[in-house]
Amino acid sequence: MIGEIISVGTELLLGQITNTNARFLAERLAELGIDSYYQQVVGDNRERLAAALRLALARSDLVVVGGGLGPTEDDLTKETVCEVLGLRLLPDPALAGEIRGVLHRRRSQVVDAAVAKQSLVPEGAVVLPNPVGTAPGLFVSAGGKYVVLLPGPPQELEPIVRRHLIPLLEDLLGRTAPGSSGEGGSGGRSFLFSRIVKVCYLGEPQVEEAVRDLIHCPNPTVAPYVSIGETHLRVTAKAGRAEEARSLVEATVAEICRREALRPYIFGLDDDTIALACGRRLTARGLTLAVAESLTGGLVGHLLTEVPGASRYFDRDLVVYSNQAKTSLLGVPPEVLAEHGAVSEQTAVAMARGALAASGAGVAVALTGIAGPTGGTAEKPVGLVYIALSGAGQPDECHRYMFGQDRRLVKQRAAHRALVLLWLRLGDHDVVRV
Amino acid sequence: MIGEIISVGTELLLGQITNTNARFLAERLAELGIDSYYQQVVGDNRERLAAALRLALARSDLVVVGGGLGPTEDDLTKETVCEVLGLRLLPDPALAGEIRGVLHRRRSQVVDAAVAKQSLVPEGAVVLPNPVGTAPGLFVSAGGKYVVLLPGPPQELEPIVRRHLIPLLEDLLGRTAPGSSGEGGSGGRSFLFSRIVKVCYLGEPQVEEAVRDLIHCPNPTVAPYVSIGETHLRVTAKAGRAEEARSLVEATVAEICRREALRPYIFGLDDDTIALACGRRLTARGLTLAVAESLTGGLVGHLLTEVPGASRYFDRDLVVYSNQAKTSLLGVPPEVLAEHGAVSEQTAVAMARGALAASGAGVAVALTGIAGPTGGTAEKPVGLVYIALSGAGQPDECHRYMFGQDRRLVKQRAAHRALVLLWLRLGDHDVVRV
User: How far apart are CA B390 and CA B362, in angstroms?
Assistant: First the structure.
């Protein structure tokens, strides 16, 4: 089966947003073993969208269209797909009821014309429920081709794909696959399988050096990617059977996890985050955590609480932006602030100790620094950050970093590094499950 | 002039990387006043790249191709462009010398075959030097059409575009414009200018209703977009002179800002965030802010401190994940927690009052809720959030919301809504600068 993605939206043509949907959808198609030769982007224009659809239908079996399902008049996807496929658009009263329910729960005003438009369904289409918004996904089958319509906002598109579209396509491939597998070509089916090994603390060159021999293998392929404070190794295998692709990948992942130079720094796989890895180690050691933040403003706590169940080990986070807050909440002595300044090793350590003492938690991490763009001096420039840790039965530690000039990046790098240092401090009680 | 972007790379079709080049290039074309109706993505395949090129040349005047200029055999862009345009590829000894220089400075090994391939230039092409890599950009003019070839890595593509391509296109547009302006046609030059008006609190249908007459105007166009908790109106004008486009946009933006139904909810323009708008009102009223968060885990503080200079009004954020923290840091009475629960109107109000009292700040906002995926009950389901405000010389207020099932979205919606409620509470002391 050949798939093609069409992204609809004038904002994409104007460069106002990045097309993250195309990447998300392409990755899902590849995982399903659906080949993809082209992607298209087209604006909110009926004629040109129709042309893009006709082109895609002429060369692909499955066309996934993202965007243009909203309630307003420049949302044209449903109408255009029906025009091209010669299908009628029919009202779906049950869907209208569900959309009203979503709006009521959100306490949004119900505009009848908008509900009427969004509850129109192409005849014979399968409705793919939208758990977070008013535009459902739609799956249309016509003339031996399949067209999928998805709402544009990623937070709506992604859950619809994960919950409804992938199972539906798996089912469809299961039905069409028998007899056509084996040969390459566009009819044959081959399976891609990928896993990502996530490494913290080390730079990309060090990680690459440790797996250089594997990077030159053709199947599975091993490719390094850099993220903030992390290096990811994507292991991808292709095979005629899904289990075969999976076992090729698992063998290489296990080999990577055995490498001496990497092992202490591999904190997880796939969607794992460093915050999740911290949670695993805190849970394994039965410790609770207190955080004290200055320049990061709450970002460390936000990252920690992205992990479901964080309340089991995350006690509190004291965001002490003012000096007064540092003293009254964490007991940082005014003399320390006066003598060494709010951005200093002494203040960072006092913050970590104060957070530990005030909370009764088992371990504490504290950050202070200068996010910029102003507030820097020759001695203490923008990007200077101190991170201190206290508790977990080890001596206090403090690290000094320079994280650059960009406020947003300084905050992100500092918060990420605080979690890496916490994870390393919590030691070797965690085994990455492969 | 009509432009079209073709991105070349199998890694894009597999969803392994996000197509940030397309956004970057689209934004530059829009700034130059070059219309764009389509974008394409195609893999490292000669036949399909040729098909994409032919299609683009049939419907556009300028085709910008990114990717496929590397030294390896699957880099086919130059060869394919020459095949489609009927041009020869000729060796350029001066360019070969420059490429050797780049490799020497990088201490990379010089592979003669790679240098020979990368220094081939389509006959008559303008070489656009690459300051950081070995593949130069190329500008080819043939049959009244223009084709630009650029290397795929963004750190190489972007400087070539900024330093060499934009001036070249400006020159080209200047040369082709005289005499041909005025009429629509693809030959004339026109300038695009956009601004975004940002509205909070109201839903997209309500916003659209308030500006329906403007949405039907052809120039400037007004298009609504939905973001989490916000509706954006993009106002775009096209004109023969840049100043003319700008003044058309400004007039429509001013008209939108005058609409009674929208005025109280327009918090900013363009890159403004609701956190920045809160900062403006806090500064205007000379108030400091204390935050108390439970389910959002520090996200409200993080958003507030994304704004440079937040330390002028942001005092502290008490992230009280445990009940013990709620009591010891905010003075929430244990009886209230026992009787009404941590997720209740009573607890939210006690948190806001406690934050105000503990900090001495002028206004406080507090959030408590159930982010999920577990912890919900029939009476208090996942997604239930209470947001309370205290201070700023007004009676305490508390609002109850249902923000859906997705942990990440519940946190985002709750944090955003807390800022919206804070901004509304701080009243009318802010004038959006137009």
Answer: 9
pLDDT digits (tens, 9 = 90+) for B278-327: 999 999 999 999 999 999 999 999 999 999 999 999 999 999 999 999 99
Out of A10, A24, A153, the one facing B15 most closely (by C-beta) is A24
What pLDDT, in 10s, does the model give residues B210-257?
999 998 888 998 988 888 889 999 888 888 777 888 899 999 999 999
Closest C-alpha to A165, from A114, A212, A130: A130
B370 touches chain A (CB under 8 A): no
Mutate to test the interface with A, among B204, B222, B302, B387 (most CBs of A within 10 A): B302
Considering the segment(s) A191-269 as one domain, its CATH architecture is 2-Layer Sandwich (3.30)
Residue that wins the pLDDT comparison between B243 and B119? B119
Query: ipTM > 0.85?
Result: no
Separation of CA B39 from chain center? 18
Closest-CA residue of B relative to A4 is B13
Residue B407: its chain A contacts at CB < 8 A? 306, 308
Query: What is the torsional sign of CA A225, A228, A231, A232?
Result: negative
CB atoms < 10 A from the CB of A339, how many?
Answer: 11
Q: Residue A26 has which token pair? A: 């392409």
Neighbouring C-beta atoms of residue B260, cutoff 10 Å? 7
Name residue, tokens 């009886």. B335
Task: Identify whether the C-beta of residue B226 lies closer than 8 Å to the C-beta of residue B209.
Answer: no
d(CA B72, CA B63): 23
- Across the interface, whether the CB atoms of A223 and B16 are under 8 A apart is answered yes
CA distance A221 to A216: 8
- The answer to whether A156 faces chain B, any CB pair under 8 Å, is no
Where exactly are the structural domains of chain B? 2-176, 191-269, 276-425
Using one digit for the tens of pLDDT, what is the confidence trace for B325-378? Answer: 999 999 999 999 999 999 999 999 999 999 999 999 999 999 999 999 998 999
Q: Which among A11, A296, A301 is the nearest to B297, CB-wise?
A: A301
Distance from CA of B302 to the nearest CA of A (A): 5
The single-letter code of the amino acid at B88 is R
> What's the CATH number of domain B2-176, 3.30.70.120, 3.30.420.40, 3.40.980.10, 3.40.470.10?
3.40.980.10
Percent of residues in chain B assigned helix, strand, coil, to nearest 5 = 40, 25, 35
What is the model's pLDDT at position B137? 94
B399 phi and psi, to 5 degrees?
-125, 145
Chain B environment of A26 (Cβ under 8 Å): 12-15
Largest CA distance in chain B: 85
Pick the CATH number of A274-425 from 3.20.170.30, 3.90.950.20, 3.40.50.2300, 3.40.449.10: 3.90.950.20
Give domain B276-425's CATH number out of 3.90.950.20, 2.60.40.420, 3.30.70.890, 3.40.50.150: 3.90.950.20
Asked if B349 is an interface residue toward chain A (Cβ–Cβ < 8 A), one would say no
Query: Which residue do the tokens 């829009």 mark?
Result: B30
DSSP state of B310: G
Interface of B with A in 267-326 (CB under 8 A): 288, 291, 293, 295-302, 304-306, 308-311, 314-322, 324-325
Closest CA to A366 of A350, A384, A383: A350
The whole-angstrom separation of Cα A93 and Cα A113 is 13
pTM of the model: 0.71
How far is the C-alpha of B384 from the C-alpha of B405, rounded, in Å?
A: 9
Q: Which residues contact B351 (CB under 8 A, 6 or more apart)?
A: B292, B294, B320, B326, B330, B332, B366, B367, B368, B388
Which residues of chain A have a CB within 8 Å of the CB of B315? Answer: 321-322, 324-325
Taking only Cα atoms into account, the Rg of chain B, rounded to an integer number of angstroms, comes to 28
